[in-house]
Design a protein that fits this description.
Blueprint: H1 2-6, H2 8-20, E1 29-30, E2 33-34, H3 55-60, H4 68-133, H5 143-149, H6 165-176
Antiparallel strand pairs: 1-2
Helix pairs in contact: 5-6
Amino acid sequence: MEDFQNDPAADFLAREQEQLAGIDGIGGLANGYPTYDEFNDDGETQLQDQGDGFSAIRGEDVVQQEPESIRIWREDHTRRLEEKDALERKKMDEMQDQAKQDVEDWYKRYDEQLKHTKENNRAEESVREKERDSPAQHNGCDWPKVAALCDFSTKAGVGKAKDVSRMKTLLLNLKANPEKR
């Protein structure tokens, strides 16, 4: 027992327990723990009703039913959320169907445009082949044909650093004054 009195922590706990014994019904605790009765007829242990610290908790353990108005609101709220979810699913399905239809329409327009472009390119290619293979109608000179195939615009290509103005000038002079063979 002398160890208990010399131990400062145990001494502090004993003093605190004595001070708290009268406050908020904390008395009746044995070594800081509630005391238990013997087993009752059902084999369950019961806390003694000595105003121990757990009496307030036992009272809160009883499940309280929510008020009728809250239950009605919760059911109504759940129903409204389910309706909104169903409406959202319906709209999402409609949007997906519309998107599929838009993609199909785009591919149809793309295929039509591609077909039209191919037809135009083939027609232009056949015209160019005929012009290329036809005999020169410019007094036996091919320079006008060459000049027709060249691009004489003044736009500068991106990344092109070569000066081709001298060649353009030469081709234009040959077109205007063709040399006869």
